[in-house]
Here is the input.
Amino acid sequence: MPVITISRQMCSLGDEIAEGLSSKLGWELITRKSLLSRFPGESATAYDLRMLSESAKYLKNPSREGGTFLEVITKNLLRYVEDHPAVLVGFGSQIIFSGREDALNIRIFAPAETRIARAVKQFRVTPEEAKTMLESAERRQRRFVSTVFGADISEPSLYHFMLNTGNLSADEAVAAVMALNSARESRRLLSREDAPGVTSRLSEAPVFKTKSEAELARLLDMYRIEWDYEPKTFPIEWDSEGNVTLAFSPDFYLRKFDTYIELTTMNQKYAAQKNKKAKKLRELYPGVNIKVVFKNDFNALAERLHIGREDRDVSL
Here is the structure.
C-alpha cells in the first residue's frame, strides 16, 4: 500500500500538512507516539515502552521477540502498511521506507524567522525563547536520526520532495504533495505490466508524425519485427545551469535487436542534423545502439541484414 512520510522542522507546518494529507486521502496518520505504542511487539513491557519514548539508544536494545526493538518495530510497521495506506510523521520513517517505490518521502522546512514568528504566536513566548525552543527541537531531531539510523536528517537524498512553507499555507502544501503523489502513483502503475485495467503507453496505437513513419511501421510489421514508437527521449545538450536544451527521441526501437532507428528523408540538411544528434547520443550513452536510416533504403538494409518474412534469427 502507498505511504507518505513527513520529516519536518518544528513550526514548519509539518504536523498540519500530515493531518491534512491523512484527512484528504483517507489514510491513517501514524505519529511517533502511536508507532512506539503499537509496533514494539506484544512482549514489550510498560518499562520498555517508557524507555523507548525517552531514549533513542534503547531502540538498539534486544527485544524478547528477537532482534532489536528497532528491527521489531520496523518489521511490524512494514507488515502493517502492506494492507493500510498511511501518512507517517517523524521517527526517521523516511529512512525506514527509503527505496520503496510505493513510498513518497517529504521534508517540510521553513526559514528560521518564519518558524520563530509562528512559535511566538503558538506558544505565547518571546522571540528569544522561541529561537531557543526551535534550536533545541532541531538538535534533538538530528541526534535521534543520527543515533538510530546513522543519517543526517537534512540530507536531500533522503527525500523525493523538500517543501519550503515560508510563503505557503498548510492547505497549499497539502495540495502540492497530493498532486505529486498522484502523478507518482500513476507512473508507478503504468510501469507495472500486470496492473489490472492499466495499459502501458507502449501498447497504445501510436500517432505517427509523418506518412513515412507509418510506411516504415508497416514494413517492420511485414518483416515481423517488433517495434516501439518513440519510447524514450535522451537529453543530449544542457545549459550552464543543467537545464536540458536539446533532446533526441529516436523514431523506432526494435526490441529483438535492442536498436533504435531514426528515420530521415533524402534532404541532406535534415539528414546531417539527425546524424549529429545520433553521434552525440552514442557518445553520451555508450550502451545505446542507434542507426539513422533513409526510409527508401530500409528494404536494402533489411535484405543486407538478412531479415526475411520468416523472421530469421539475426541481430543488428
Observations:
- The first strand starts at residue 3 and ends at 8.
- The chain is about 45% helix and 15% strand.
- The two ends are 42 Å apart (CA to CA).
- Residues 3-190 form a domain with the Rossmann fold fold (CATH 3.40.50.300).
